[in-house]
Amino acid sequence: MTDVQVLTVDDQPVFREAVRALIFSTPGFELAGEASSGAEALSAADRLHPDLVLLDVNLPDLDGFQVAERITAHNGAPAVVLTSSRDSSDFGPLVSGSGARGFISKGDLSGAAIAELL
Fold it and tell me: Dihedral sign, CA of 8, 10, 14, 19?
């Protein structure tokens, strides 16, 4: 079985670094690439064809919900998991309406939490 290719999207370099460390230390996951904005995420998802996009809700150009909708709009699209430092209850139905598989708060992010949504 091949590793899950992950595209990490977050405007905070320190969070991308933390996710990179998490992915490298979790069997079954491999880093496909990183992006720091919604526009970069759309381009990278199209170019890299990841299995999973770990996507921050708050980006400087587009919000993560819009990006998730666009990424998941076609057949064969990668799974999208939204993240934020805020609690999922702050977003109500926006998560389910975005096409994302689910939401994990940044404080609860782990390989097991990601695998559970896949």
Answer: negative
